[in-house]
């Protein structure tokens, strides 16, 4: 049977060994071969274990309805009831059934509601609409981030959902930002890049730590790295764009800076084979392209042409991803190539 989607689990190999179909040594060699990526290279596909079947979507709809009803019925106490409800549901759909999309949704709801729950306990008389970070509640924000990170750590020990590490990092980022805002009031509004870019680079470095350990993108480490890259990208891109360009009254120079930033991100994304890095910059790319078209008098359909241009860039990158990676890796030193997934045309 020729099926690229076929997945052989460890339990299947154990059963095959027990039935005498495979020798134990052969099964172990097969697992080692797949993890090394010595066969056909699927790393370039950047596979993400998001949906294991339509039942994932069906269950997620049910979870949305169920948790939404709990939040409505518990009213002001939902920040306390939702973490408990999501944990109990994770015992079924994550621990027992190992469903991908419901596990991700449950973890995200757990993290957000846990953060809100801690904030509520620290300031029970504060309306939820006033939970935003301000200098008078920075310590509450910081404590909430730290406690949430601890609770997310317990969630990881129990369920091992790949997105958990990124959620924990997000909680720690909230803690650090709150501490800095408390120590230096208004630093977020005046020097956002100095706050968020280092945090984004630290998150990116952690993502690369896991990527380097799984160049063939075969294990859970690759999924963990994906979510970390998805978190790192906006932490780096948004403050840089707002710091470099004047988005309120953009001129051609500002648009050029955004194009340059997108080019740098594309180079990095192609090198490490992570498309997630480019997602955060697409909105700004469209804005820059719209400004460029407006300055060159393309008429009333400027926005549509800008969206068309961004879509074309994304499609071109998608189609030309492998040839571009081949070229970039060919000019990279071996020390860099040894850390990133190999291109189909570049020898390991």
List the helices and strands and how they pair.
Elements: H1 10-18, H2 24-36, H3 54-74, H4 78-96, H5 100-122, H6 138-159, H7 164-183, H8 187-190, H9 192-213, H10 220-244, H11 252-272, H12 276-279, H13 282-295, H14 302-319, H15 321-331, H16 334-337
Helix pairs in contact: 3-4, 3-5, 4-5, 5-6, 5-7, 6-7, 7-9, 7-10, 9-10, 11-13, 13-14
In short:
With 348 residues, the protein is mostly helical. Helices cover 72% and strands 0% of the residues. Helix 3 packs antiparallel against helix 4 (78-96) and helix 7 (164-183) runs antiparallel to helix 9 (192-213).
From N to C, what is the helix and strand string? HHHHHHHHHHHHHHHH
Using only CA atoms, what is the Rg?
A: 23 Å
User: Structural class given helices, strands, pairing?
Assistant: mainly alpha
Strand content: under 5%
* Tally of helical runs: 16
* Number of beta-strand segments: 0
Q: Tell me the helix content.
A: over 70%
Describe this structure in words.
The structure is a single chain. The protein is mainly α. Helix content is 72%, strand content 0%. α5 packs antiparallel against α6 (138-159), α7 packs antiparallel against α9 and α9 runs antiparallel to α10. The longest helix has 25 residues, at 220-244. The radius of gyration is 23 Å and the shape is globular.
């Amino acid at each position: 049977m020729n099926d690229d989607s076929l997945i052989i689990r460890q339990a299947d190999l154990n059963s095959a060994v027990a039935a005498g179909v495979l020798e134990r040594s052969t099964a172990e060699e097969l697992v080692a071969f797949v993890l090394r990526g010595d066969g056909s290279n699927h790393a370039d596909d950047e596979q993400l274990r998001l949906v294991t079947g339509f039942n994932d979507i069906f269950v997620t709809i049910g979870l949305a309805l169920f948790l939404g009803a709990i939040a409505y019925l518990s009213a002001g106490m939902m920040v306390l009831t939702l973490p408990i409800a999501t944990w109990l549901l994770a015992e079924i759909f994550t621990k027992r059934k190992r469903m991908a999309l419901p596990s991700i949704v449950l973890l995200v709801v757990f993290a957000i509601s846990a953060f809100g729950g801690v904030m509520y306990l620290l300031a029970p008389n504060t309306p939820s609409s006033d939970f935003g970070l301000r200098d008078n509640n920075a310590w509450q924000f910081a404590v909430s981030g730290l406690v949430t990170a601890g609770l997310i750590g317990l969630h990881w020990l129990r369920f091992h959902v790949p997105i958990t590490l990124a959620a924990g990092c997000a909680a720690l980022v909230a803690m650090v930002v709150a501490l800095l805002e408390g120590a230096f009031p208004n630093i977020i509004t005046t020097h956002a890049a100095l706050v968020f870019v280092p945090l984004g680079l630290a998150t990116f470095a952690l993502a690369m730590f896991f990527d380097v350990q799984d160049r063939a993108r075969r294990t859970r480490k690759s999924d963990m790295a994906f979510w970390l890259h998805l978190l790192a990208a906006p932490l780096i891109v948004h403050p840089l764009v707002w710091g470099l360009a004047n988005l309120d009254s953009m001129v051609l120079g500002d648009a050029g800076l955004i194009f340059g930033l997108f080019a740098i991100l594309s180079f990095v994304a192609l090198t490490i084979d992570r498309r997630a890095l480019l997602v955060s910059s697409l909105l700004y790319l469209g804005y820059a392209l719209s400004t460029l078209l407006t300055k060159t008098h393309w008429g009333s359909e400027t926005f549509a042409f800008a969206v068309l241009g961004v879509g074309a860039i994304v499609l071109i990158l998608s189609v030309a991803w492998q040839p571009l990676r081949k070229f970039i890796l060919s000019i990279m030193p071996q020390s860099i190539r040894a850390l990133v997934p190999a291109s189909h045309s570049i020898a390991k």
